[in-house]
User: Fold these one by one.
Assistant:
Number 1:
Amino acid sequence: MALLRKGNAQTCEQLLEEYKSKPQPTNPEKIVFSGIGENDVYNISAPFEDEGELVIAGRVESRDSEHSNVYFFVERNGEWVPRENAPVLELQDPFFTRISGELVVGGVQIFPHPTNEGQLGWRTVFYKGQSIASLQEFTKGPDGMKDLRLVELKDGSIGVLTRPQGEKGGRGKIGWTSISSLEELTVDVVNEAPLLQGQFIDEEWGGANEPHLLSNGLVGVLGHVASFDEEGNRHYYPMVFALNPETSEFSDMELIATRSQFLPGPTKRPDLEDVVFSGGLVRKPDGTADIYAGISDAEAQKITIVDPFLQYER
């Protein structure tokens, strides 16, 4: 198994500079959703198969609200429409994986903050089932944690990527642990997961969006790294790195796209214009991959890149 270097924290600026010399993405394309009124659909999952049909989970909300629902969409005549009779989950930022043959779907649940009046708290909620139709909630992550992700490892155990904020994680850093079954996914286990040291500088933050088990047993992580500029605008970039699940060693982050390479479009607020939220990645046999992303918190697009995980499998 490839040995990866320990973390070498780089700033968004340094990552951007390195990225410019690499092959750039092609074929940006807006993903068209209909059947949800005037609402926006963004921060989508990659398409996945459910009962013989490709499905995208997407965050649906009005432009002036944070209160969203997750719908499951299917493609009809080039547009993605809500799937008939599919559950609608009161969540943000959906994701999916498969563990022991079961579908696991999660997202972020918001709720009134227990101590800060007028503010919202959030947590990651997980559902599982044989299919979308049979999904049942089975656990919640710690209050205040988004970007909690699972991946089934080569030996059948389950890798857990965490993202604490505050005392342990600052603005948001990635942690890693493993468990032997979904029953072990508890708030304590998540809270105690060690951080990947030296991955982000303290002024910036990031999280995992979609882990992939690679052919050699490493975990390829699709995630994001983010920063504020002096005006308080947010900048979110899709990135990847590889992780050795046995030693917790990891490779340096690499950016894989920027907002300017996607098509122009609306933004939820002016400070969110330069936001690409990596929803999911579909690896293709020809050595390329499609990234599905939320753009500027207002729409969804996909773009084609060189498969960023092939380098870790060599």
Number 2:
Amino acid sequence: MATNKHAVIRYEALDRCFSNKGRKFFIDDLIRYVSEALTDYTGKDSSISRRQILKDMDFMRSETGFRAPIESYKEGKKTYYRYSDRNYSLAMQQINPIEADLLKTTLDMLGRFKGLPQFDFVQELALKLKKSFQLEDLDECIFFDQNEYLKNLHLLGDLLKFIQQKRVLHVEYKSFNQDKEESFLIHPYFLKQYNKRWFLFGQRDGFDSWTNLALDRMVTFEAAEGVAFIPPTETHDAYFEDIIGVSKPIDALCQFIIIKIDKSLWPYIDSKPLHPSQTVMERTDTYTTIQLEVVPNYEFYAQILGLGSAVEILEPMEARAVIRQKLEANVKRYVE
């Protein structure tokens, strides 16, 4: 279906004319009726040409349109237009093949969220739409890397609701490196998924920077009554501009990091950059040197270590030293 709003108004107006059993609509009548409909919609005088009316009828008749049974009938020297099927109307019309394919693909993608409680409605909706529009089932052809067994997934719906309502939350939280739970207030801003885990980002009372809370480490949360919500002072994109992953060390500075990549791994890094700031500094027959502009954080070092011996941090020396310490600690575990 055309997405142009004026086109939709025209099609609906013509549909009312063609389905009117008590009146004959000649071309001048159609022009007048559609022009009045556009005027009512836009709030200003509008007119439609004879050529556009005929073009709209051709589209409505077409396979990519509505396959509308619009027929022309002679009355003297004039011609009026009406649906040959008196029971036809756009409201009763099945979607066209192109729309059906788009709808099937969309339903298939939404189906990938199965297992998340707040998306339980999707399966029921998909069944209704498939029945209503006579859509055959799709073979599964797209999959998302969703961890359906992640602890506390059922909290996503309530958290999203509180974020939309701008409600301050009282949270009981137990970090992986803490023995006891801690209790605090947080002003929630958004949810973000990374590495199959979900994180809540917001402003924690007593902190100047944003805090991220792993969903699977949250014990309980509830709305804190009578506490004014503090809106974010920066955007999502600005916050994540210079980091990989979700953690942002307090007072950490963005740095230029030079990395040497072996020839064998370069095609992978070239097609899937480590960070949007990635730029090539040097290319040789055996290696490529790139530069990143990032804040070195936990996820950055984990990603570098995950690439193994095919990568080497050249600068700065502080980042190089961190990688060396981690590698030495790993080697120590296997030689003792």
Number 3:
Amino acid sequence: MKINLNADLGESFGAWKMGEDEALLQVVRSANIACGFHAGDPLVMRNTVRTALAAGVSLGAHPAYPDLQGFGRRPLKMAPAELEAAVIYQVGALAGMAAAEGGRLTHVKPHGALNNQACEDAALADTVARAVRAFDRELILLAPALSELCAAGERAGLRVAAEIFADRAYTDAATLVPRNQPGAVIHDHDELVAHVLRMLEAGGIVAQSGKLMKTAMHSICVHGDTLGAVESARQLAETLKAKGWDLVDLPEMVG
């Protein structure tokens, strides 16, 4: 019984601070680090990489649409060639920081609106997967379970890790409930842990309605910008360990 716990990190920018990265890095096993397009800057990226490596956490790039003001959560329309280049650019930046610190990039997880749109748009998903493969076909694509992005990664011949979200509610289509709807984000620690356990025990995504959608699950995400993320992650990790789950990094999880 192995599972990966990941978090989206490195989302501070300049003098603006987001999240409690150092504390989360003592709990999670994989870090998805912002690459400067939705958050993060070169110094934040390098410091986050350094802290993650010191904690023994596997490194992932977290590319997004070029949308600093909207934190990458606003859908954009980009030509496939432009988007592919933007993803390669961001992955390359994070890979460079990893190399400078004696580490190695292991995976890529798109952020925000780019991720959400790629989950439902097969052509967009193919563009993202193509960009990852063009940079390094050995990279793992961390993608939401039962999504078009998962399917695109498999079509591209990438190793794919199917992700579920600890702090987000699901629709009957296995997509995330939009953040502007009631109950979309789960803040209560006990409710969050129960939500994850329900899915792991059922062997699939469980929607708000109670609908079960069977799927493989390799990684669980706790968003670093969600209120109370550190305590939620700690409680989740402790509960999983108590129930016999071994928390491993992403490369060990997917082989």
Number 4:
Amino acid sequence: MEDLATKIIPLVQMLIPGFVCTMIYYWLADMKKPGQFERTIQALIGTGLITLLVSGIRVLMEYIGAHWFVLGEWTPTVESAWGVGLAVLLGLGLAYASNHDYLYSIARKRGLTSRASYPEWIYAFRKRESKHVVLNFLDGRRLYGYPSVWPTDPKDGHFLITQPCWMNEEGEWVETPGIESYLVNNSDIYWVEFLE
């Protein structure tokens, strides 16, 4: 049993950067989380990339130490710290790029894909963040307002509509004095209109 523990602990320590990277990414990115198997594969790929980066940093630091000045001794602790630090930076960077559609916009411009880095539902709201909307309810009612928050999934979640205004049967907008916002269940919405 001790032999198994001495083999598993270094393996887990080696894999931690990839899991930290994917954990941070899925915490912050507006992405649907894939299954456990796919996330594990992504973590393993992340570990491989981070290991390559740490190896490159070690070579660079040894070169700097041999030619200019010594920052300190390269130890397993330093190597682990670089790995976790790079995992955090990589996870934050990928989440930022995903939430702002940077990588996919480059791929779209090159004709490599027609997709965005997030689902169409989120893309529609992200590209129209300053626009007001009209929510059309299943029962025919219409609510105008600004979507401060919108659901990340088209089937569930809630809209937080500020500056709300209802449309009556005559097609006139009716102000709602004293109401600052409405929290609307997405399952009650038939479609969303984006206004100019």
